[in-house]
Amino acid sequence: MSSVMLALDWQALSQTEGRVVIAYSGGLDSHVLLHLAATHLTGVAREHLRALHVNHQLSPNADSWQQHCEQVCADLGVAFRSERVTVSDQGSLELAARQARYQAFDLHLNAGDVLLQAHHANDQLETLLMRLERGTGLRGLGGIPATRQQGKWRIVRPLLIFSRSQLLEYAQCHNLDWVEDESNQETVYRRNLLRHEVVEKWQQFNPQIAGKVAQQAEQWQQDLSIHQRLVRRELEKFLAPDGSLSWSSLPESEPAFWMQQYLQGQDINVTQGQLQALVTMLASEADGMPECQIGQSVIRRFKGRIFVMSTLAEQPSLVTLTPHQWQEQVAFSICCDQSVQLGKRPEGIKLLLANGKHRPLKKWLQERQIPHWWREQLPYLFVNNELVAIGTLWQHPNWQGKVQWRDHGVLPWPYECQIID
Prior knowledge:
Elements: H1 2-7, H2 10-14, E1 20-23, H3 28-40, H4 43-47, E2 50-55, H5 62-76, E3 79-84, H6 93-108, E4 114-116, H7 121-134, H8 138-141, E5 147-150, E6 153-156, H9 164-173, H10 190-205, H11 209-235, E7 245-246, H12 255-265, H13 272-283, E8 291-294, E9 297-302, E10 305-310, E11 319-321, E12 327-328, E13 332-336, E14 340-343, E15 350-352, E16 358-360, H14 361-367, H15 372-375, E17 380-383, E18 386-390, E19 394-395, E20 403-407
Parallel strand pairs: 1-2, 1-4, 2-3, 4-6
Antiparallel strand pairs: 5-6, 7-10, 8-9, 9-10, 11-14, 12-13, 13-20, 14-17, 15-16, 17-18, 18-19
């Protein structure tokens, strides 16, 4: 099948600065890709070509699959690496396995490396059907991208426009020997159900359907890149200097659309159901401060603007600061010229101000417009259990220490707040 071989730009891959790594499960698809790369890569790229097998330990056959993959690589003269992972039993098994797999990829891939994955047209069709079923936006209609950056390394999927039947033809032509994952037959998993009960029957009436949909998805991706460029230009009109989204400035009939674009710019993808629920929540309680957690991010409304930030599982550690030595915390670093204790936010106290008046801490935080997500994370400094400073925001008039602190950027500050000297 020369058409499959021509699908890869072997010359460009042979000139990549980093290594070419095959995500090799041992199945039909990845074996075809491995065979193609081993046959057609040249020069340093071929010498450094390696296969990475992730052993999910979910099947009683997992170890024999790993041994099979190692032997195939030995026969092809390709360096072999494997990584055992533990897949969480919480939530979706498919999602948990994917997360574990990508963690393994991160362990083995360096800056500039290219990971080749063997997704094909049938995978593209199944993905589009699943996204349509649960609700998706324009970006979701683009399906699986042919290439994308993953941190410091890049993913390339060269077989997306070819159907599984074409890969099977290639494998049989070259007498390839692959493993079959028995879980692929279990229709309890949504993707398998679509594959066996929908796609396979659909292909009986239209054998070319997978390839046609894959080609359409490729066109959608090209159109989407233009659309996104124009949308980003328009989105900037709704952004404050601190990068937050001005909720009140959004067109009345379009908050869901602009909210989705804003979140995608923060690498947060949501389903249509999640998006509508989020918009409804943010549009309610005009005087409140609603928030919602999605994955490892929290979306909050504050003073009519939308902020996205990381979740912090802990408050600052209770430690004693050594004079003139920086202490690292999750949200900030801090240094003091005296020995002080870094502690939690005290309750029910009043601050003595420079003018001699007292102000309740709670009221003071509100008046300084300190966002609520920072109020428990601020560096509260104590001497003999007495609060003497809050970073550089406040200092007891009778205490002569000098404090420095650096924001790590994990929690945003509204642009109105000038908080670090």
